[in-house]
Amino acid sequence: MAKQLNVGMIGYGFMGRAHSNAYRMVTNFFDVPQEPVLKVICGLVEDEAKAFAKQWGYESHCTDWRQVIERDDIDVVDICVPNNVHAEIAIAAAEAGKMIICEKPLALDVAQARTMVEAVEKAGVATLVSFCYRRVPAVTLAKALIDEGRLGKIFHYRSVFLQDWTISAEVPQGGMATWRLDVKAAGSGVTGDLLAHCIDTAMWHNGPITRVNAMTETFIKERVHTETGKVEPVGIDDACTFFCRFENGSMGNFESTRYARGHKALYTFEINGEHASIRWDLHDLHRLEWFDHRDEGKLRGWRSIHVTDHGGDHPYMDHWWVPGLAIGYAEAFVHQVADFMTAVGKGEPCSPTFREALATQKVCEAVLESAKSGTWVEVPAD
Ligand code: SOE
Fold it and tell me: Which of 193, 200, 329 for a ligand 1 pocket mutation test, highest count of atoms within 8 Å of Cβ?
C-alpha cells in the first residue's frame, strides 16, 4: 500500500473546510495506514480556489472537477458540492477507479442514487457518505449500548432537527450560500438536508424503516433567485414531520424545520426500550443521557454520561485529550476520515457506503411522496 492517500477535494464551502480540516488533523491523532496529501482543491471561482489552496495547504487548485478526475495521482475524490452535482462527479470518479467520499444526501432522488450505487459497485471502489453525526462519540456509544441489548425491546425512536435561518422572506434561494433553498440544486428542503441525518442515525441504531406517513410545509412560497435576480417559486419543503414504522416493530417520530425560532441546530434523538432509554442533544454533544429501570429504586433516575473516558469505554476518546476534556463537531469528521482510511487499509467497506445511503434516500423520497399524497407510503426494500 502506498504511503500516501492523495486527496482531490471538490468544493470549498462549509463542508470543504470540514473535510479538509479532518485530513489535516487525522494523522496527529489516529494511527492510519496512510498519510493524506491534499493534492488539489476544485471550486467555481478561481481566486477563491487559489486562496483556499493557500489557506488549507492544497498543492494545487482548479475550477473544473473533470481535471481532478483525470489526474492519475488522485486516490480519493471528496465531493463537497451541492447535491445536484454529486451524481455526475461520483459516476465519473468511479469510472476512473477513484475512491469516493461524498457529502449527504447522496443524490437528488432515489433514481439518481441508484445510478451512483451501480457505478461504484461496478467499479469496485470504496465509498463513504458523510453522515457525520454517527461519529460523535456519544452517538456511537448509543449504538453500542443498543447492540449490546441493554435497552431490551425498542418501542420508540424520536428525533428532531430544528433550525431558524430561513424565516426571513429576504433570504434568497440559489447561489453559493443559499443553494439549499433551491430545489434544483438541493432536491428537497429539510427532508434531504436535515432529516436525512436523523434517518441515517436512526436506521443505524434501530434498523430499517418500512413505512412512513408525512406532512410538509413551504412557509415562504417565493424568493428571489440569486442566479436570475427574479422572484421564483420555492420548491423545497421548509418543514417536515413524519411518523413511521421500523422493521423491528418500533414506532418512529421525526420532525425538522428551519422555522423553529431560537434553534440553530437542535438535533436530538430519544430511544425508549423495555429496560432503558437513551437521549442525545447536539447542543451538548459529548453527553449521553441514560435511564435504566433496572437500577435500584431509590437511586433510579436519568444519568448524564460525559462521553470522554479512556480505556476503550468511550468510542474514539482514547485518541484525544485526558478524560473529562470534550471534543466537538469538527472531530466527527476526523473520525470519519480515520475510519475510512482504516477500512480501506483492511480492504473493508466503511459505513455508510453509497448503498447504505441509498436506503436513507429511499426513506426521504417515501416521506416526500407521503406528504404529497396524504397517505402511508411503503419504503421499497430493494
Ligand atoms: C444546513 O444548515 C446544515 O449545514 C446541513 O446542511 C448540515 O448537514 C447539518 O449538519 C447542519 O446544517
Answer: 193
